Amino acid sequence: MVPLGHYLILSAILFATGTMGVFLRRNVITMLLSIEVMLNAVNLAFIAFGRTQGHVDGQVIMFFVVTVAAAEAAVGLALVIALFRHRETLNPDAFTSLKW
Amino acid sequence: MGTELLVFYAFAALAVAASLAVVLGKNPMHSVLLLIVSFAALAGLYIGLDAPFAAVVQIIIYAGAIMVLFLFVVMLLNAHREDEPAALEAAGGLTRGPIRTGAALAVVLAAELGWALMKARGANDGMLSAGAGADAQALQSVRSLGTVLFTNYSLAFEVTSILILVAMIGAVVLAKREL
Amino acid sequence: MLLLIPLLPFLGFLINHAVGRRLSKTASGGVACLAMAGAFGMSVVSVWNLLQMPPADRGIVQQVAAWIESGALVVPFTLRLDPLASVMILVVSGIGFLIHVYSTAYMHEERDSEYARYFSYLNLFASFMLVLVLGANFPVMFVGWEGVGLCSYLLIGFWFTKKSASDAGKKAFIVNRVGDFGFLLGMFMVFAQFGSLDFQEVARQAGHLQPEVTFGAISIATLLLFVGATGKSAQIPLHVWLPDAMEGPTPVSALIHAATMVTAGVYMIGRNAVLFSAAPETLAIVAGVGVATALMAGTIGLVQNDIKRVLAYSTVSQLGLMFVAMGVGAYAAGIFHLYTHAFFKACLFLGSGAVIHALAGEQDIRKMGGLRKELPITYWTFLTASLAIAGFPFLSAFFSKDEILWKAFSGGHTVVWAVAAAASLLTAIYMFRLVFLTFHGKRTSAGPGEHAAGASLAVARDDHASVGGPHDSHAHGHASEGGHLHDAPPAMATALILLAIGSVVAGYVGIPAVIGGGNQIEHFLAPSFAAPGIEAGGARGASHAEAPAEGPVSHAEAVGEGGPAPSGVDAATEHRAELTLMAFSSGLAVAGIGIAWFFWRRSRALTDRIAASFAGVHRVLLNKYYVDEFYDAVIVSPIKGVSERFLWKVFDAGVIDGVVNGAGTVVNGWSGILRRLQTGSMRAYALSVFVGVVMILGYYVWR
């Protein structure tokens, strides 16, 4: 019997990890991967809650999250490719044209 | 039951470790592959939560499709060899200062989230053993999932399909060499 | 129906203003004259209707629109015709019509667009003047008051490309404005005192008051109203604009500055007769100012060399006499003189216009002479009007002026009477100086053909009659004709003749009882000066020889008299006194003519020697007692100095611009700091989002 709390703490840890990855990496692809980690953490939380409350809504939401993640990944990677073509680099710090 | 808890801890540790490796690793290719490991661990956890369908979906779609896409792009851009030299000279991926701040903030975030989530209803109730009762049966059934999906959430379902269409078009357009 | 009277000229203004540029001169002039004729016709009809009503109750009211309705302040746009207003509208529309006709010939050398502009302004002026006179309450009158001031500015500065003309226009408007400010304050005080701005209502309430013995609220209010009147009617101290206003075309001078606008002040006092009667202190001031102005203007007019300026100062002087009448309580006499003055003064101005027209712009009387033979019509009408203004017996002004002098004397204001008599003597002298120098004797200059050659004059700078005259357009028109002069063309001559006839006969409505007349005008006007609701006592109207047998002598009844009504015992003495004074005034007139003949016809050399030996006095008079210079030094220059040095440089440029520019600079500065947030680095943005999330979550955790 795993208490819900355990799942939730796990979810929180994974989320924090992903967030850290977004801010600290200087590689755009790795940043996107970190975002996937965050989304996964959220999925876990949803399913855990759904199980607690005894209905399938948690899983349904998880499906939607997965779908959105897929779409976002596709578009994000397309953007990465487009950006790469401009600057030949995957370092987000290289793209500062909107600086004041 | 002890086994349950043990299994949980095993998968959880795997997931955390893999995620950390994803975030801290220098080679993007490695990061992608380690993320797949993380997904697998999470899928295991889903099964433990009476959501086998979710687990399978996780593997097939997430690990099977999305990560493959990432791999494609990594290899296309030749990012798998190393981090860009320009970035390396600045700090080789991660400098000590930002790591410490980042780690501190992340710990803070985790603590907050955990605390917040723990305040949720029924957080400390016992629960969650596989295959316990009719409840679990219902949950496991794909049928019930489908019913809910196509009745309560039918609008979201349709909108999601449009979302995917838009994402496809967007991806194609953005990645073209010349419009 | 009353509305049509000011409305027709206003329509004339609209037409000429909008499309006048494209109309021919005949059309635009015709429109204007037709509008005035229409107004005159409507006035006649309205007065006729008025006369059908019983004498004590004569009033036609027309509320045109509800105008101001704000709590206790209810001011409808109402026109009211009563005996006083009827005299005024007939004068304004009738003489106005004649002057319009005259102008069609006088202004003929202008361009079509200028011609139309002139007539549009002239019609607008007539419209406003009629509104002023017909107004049933203070604000409506003030609308007309301001409007005629505006039109005066527009018309004085008609040839605005000439600096002196535009300056004169501005001067007129600004000086008027000072007076208007007094008028406004007076109006406010009246409202505060009586709670109403309607003339009838104010008169009704004022009729119940006892005359103030000290300088109380009513006195202050009426004094402020009188300040407005000094501005509009060119009395001391606001008289300075009228002589400069001669820069405008001569018909304008005739209409505005002789017959109508300047009489608005007198009319205003007449309209508020009951109110003023409740403030004897103010009336004393009115009479004092009037008589001082009359004397001062008379002395100045004696030495001026520009034909129009002499007439201007004579106008100021005559207005002073009208104010004397008002001041001693002889309201009907003042209005009577206003009415006769309109005729002869307009005739004089138009006659001078004919002279100027004939001489192609020459206005200096020292250059004139001998025009008697060459401009017969002009000469005879001018002479008639001059005899009238001098007070020659049995012409119109004889009756009106005499009435004023008699009322002053019999009211006990002997000093006022004496000064007024002196002013009348001066009037006769300088008017006939003008006649003799202009029309008699030999001309010193050769006429229009030569003056274009520009012989310069040793003229004092302040004497504005210069060679080459202000009427450049006229000079161009006639310069080619050589030495030939032509008398007034038909349009001008008609007006002159009609006005001259008026100068003679207009006075016959006011023949005093003492020599057998019925003094109809005083009877006619009396109800206008009585408080409504108080019945006119028996002593009203007919000559003061009759006794007021009944009723308490409240000041409302005494209004028509100007003094305590004598009892029957003194009737014979009164008669004798009046006849004596009448003879005395006639004597003054004849004496004045004689003196003028002696000095300027018989022995010019003697005159010039006297002028030389009293050179200092002569210069002071020529420079109008240096009043303009005084105002300039004391008022105008300090204001200009403060405006330029302080208000402009310090306040406007420094403070206001500083605040505005400063706001911009501050924004600029802050934006310079704040824009550093936009680093362009995606990670920085994400970091800030993250920090925000942490903080918000922390907040919820804390709670």
Structure description:
- The complex is a heterotrimer of chains A (100), B (179) and C (703).
- Chain A is mostly helical and 100 residues long.
- Chain A has a single domain (4-88), classed as Helix Hairpins (Orthogonal Bundle), CATH 1.10.287.3510.
- Chain A contains three helices and no strands.
- Chain A has helices at residues 4-24, 28-53, 57-87.
- Chain B has 179 residues and is mainly α.
- Chain B folds into three domains: 1-82, NADH-ubiquinone/plastoquinone oxidoreductase chain 6, subunit NuoJ (Four Helix Bundle (Hemerythrin (Met), subunit A), Up-down Bundle); 86-132; 141-179.
- Chain B has helices at 2-24, 28-48, 52-76, 85-91, 96-118, 133-140, 142-151, 154-175.
- The radius of gyration of chain B is 21 Å and the shape is globular.
- Chain C has 29 helices and two strands.
- Chain C has a two-stranded antiparallel sheet with strand order 1-2.
- In chain C, helix 3 (83-106) packs parallel to helix 15 and helix 11 (264-271) runs antiparallel to helix 15.
- Mean pLDDT of chain C is 80; it is low at 447-483 and 534-566.
- The interface between A and B is large, with 77 and 95 residues.
Quickly count the domains of chain A. 1
Residue runs with pLDDT of under 50 for 5 or more positions of chain B: 86-94, 128-134
Helix share, percent of chain B? over 70%
Shape of chain B: globular
Low-confidence sequence ranges of chain A: none
Largest sheet entry of chain A = none
Gross morphology of chain A is: elongated
